[in-house]
Amino acid sequence: MEEHGFTGIEPHGGNLAQRVDEFEKALQNRNIRISAVVAGFEGFLIAKDPEVRQQATESIKVILEAAGALGSEGLIVVPAFNRQESLPYIEAREVLVEKLQELGAYAAQHNTRILLEPLNRREAWFLRLLADAAAISKDTESEGVGVMGDFWHMTWEETSDLGAIISAGDYLHHMHIASRKNRRMPGEDEGDNYIEGFKGLKHINYQKYISLECGSEGDRRETIPAAAKLMREQWEEASITLKPIDHQNRHPQL
After folding, report:
1. Do the bridges between strand 33-34 and strand 114-116 make them parallel or antiparallel, or are there none, so unpaired?
2. CB–CB of 224/183 below 8 Å?
3. pTM of the predicted structure, to 2 decimals
4. At 231, is the secondary structure helix, strand, or coil?
5. pLDDT in tens, 14-53
6. Which domain range does residue 134 map to?
7. 239-244 long-range Cβ contacts below 8 angstroms, 24+ apart
8. Average pLDDT over the chain, rounded to an integer
9. 175 to each of 24, 44, 209, how far by Cα in Å?
10. CATH no. for residue 70?
11. Residue 254: inside a domain, yes or no?
């Protein structure tokens, strides 16, 4: 990872509390840091069953404490997948905000945060857009709650990478990236392009991680450095300065 210029690693949250020392020792004298922590908790936050909601709350707190100890940006949380029996939408949103206020306060105590992740509709109808995730974060009024974006999910749900990222604004604290069609390494699908999204990230002065969350059909010794090269080139190509947004018509101008 260091050879190809990567600076972060994103571990799974399962059993992370028992692995803090292991990660600290492994990353000593390295340029690699813990970026975010992905899932690993039990239950889910908008379950119909209150016991399942409480199970999620308590297990998320355990991971948040470990994430904070490792200096992680936050724990990635999906409120519910389609296969999980959830509350009706309006009630689910109200319950989620309430739960996130509690968890956000706990996360802030441990110098980390919850990162809400919108998915595509095949996986989760409840939360699909960055703007909606940002609105939920805003409603919590908690510094311990934020948003992450995933270019692969955004491919299917967002009308504009640029618009979606600008809509998340200061609530955006993490990103995932993969090829746009088959969720492989960036560049493994023909026409993989992230320039508009990168323009959005530059416009909001994003300084945090973009994590690879994907597989690879090719030889990883070739596809990983090729992906890093593609991302760097497109990041540079996205260096066009955006003019301030005209809030009267709410369209960004290039």
Report:
1. unpaired
2. no
3. 0.93
4. helix
5. 999 999 999 999 999 999 999 999 999 999 999 999 999 9
6. 2-240
7. 239/202, 240/199, 242/199, 242/202, 242/203
8. 94
9. 23, 22, 6
10. 3.20.20.150
11. no
